[in-house]
TrEMBL record:
Its main location: membrane. Belongs to the L6 tetraspanin family. The gene is TM4SF4. It is a multi-pass membrane protein. It is found in: Membrane. This is Transmembrane 4 L6 member 4. Coiled coil: none annotated.
Length: 205
């Protein structure tokens, strides 16, 4: 497969992942599926890891990867004037942007999962009652009985955990795909977009 064709496949894969990440981040603004005040939303949601990191910053590399297959790879093979090698090289820069964006989303998601959601707690002490972060160091991940600490919004813990886990997994997949494009872009820049076509083109002349 030509480097440009492979890059297009990566771009096609990245687009739905970016959309899923944006939707997950939007849903996190409604903890437990409820509309709450802005100060009752977990702080990491406001970092826009899914919207900005794995969303907007991932759309640009995806569009660039999709455009690398627009020209005929065999017709451009060996022709430096067509700029195909430069296009493959420039795609590495956009892949790096994608890695940074997805990496940002992964870090934010990891911190949010470890910290747990902001929720209303009715504790024995005055300092333990109200909208607080009742969990620490991810203790609630191994002890599901702790989830009952959160009284409101209802089901906020599984909502928080599942959506941030999706963002974490999607971000890791995006990083892997962008890393693959870095290698693909290097190969395309060094040996041409479609090395296998060179021999066929030369023999046909």
């Amino acid at each position: 497969m030509c480097s440009g064709g492979f890059a297009k496949c990566l771009g096609i894969s990245l687009m739905p992942l970016a959309i899923v990440c944006v939707l997950c981040n939007i849903l996190l603004f409604f903890p437990g599926g409820k509309i709450v005040d802005s100060e009752q939303i977990t702080r990491q949601v406001w970092f826009f890891g899914g919207i900005l990191g794995s969303g907007v910053l991932m759309i640009f590399p995806a569009l660039v990867f999709l455009g690398l297959k627009n020209n005929d790879c065999c017709g451009c093979c060996g022709n430096e004037s067509c700029g195909r090698r430069f296009a493959m090289l420039s795609s590495i820069l956009f892949a790096a942007v994608g890695v940074l964006g997805a990496g940002y989303s992964v870090v934010v998601s990891g911190v949010a999962i470890n910290q747990g959601p902001l929720c209303y707690v009715e504790g024995p002490g005055e300092n333990e009652t109200g909208w607080i972060y009742p969990f620490s160091n991810g203790d609630y991940l191994s002890d599901k009985s702790l989830w009952s600490k959160c009284k409101e919004p209802k089901d906020v813990v599984p909502w928080h955990l599942s959506l941030f886990c999706v963002l974490l997994v999607m971000g890791l997949i995006q990083i892997a795909l962008c890393a693959v494009q870095v290698i693909n872009g290097l190969l395309g820049a060094l040996c041409g977009d479609c090395c296998g076509c060179c021999g066929g083109s030369d023999g046909a002349v």
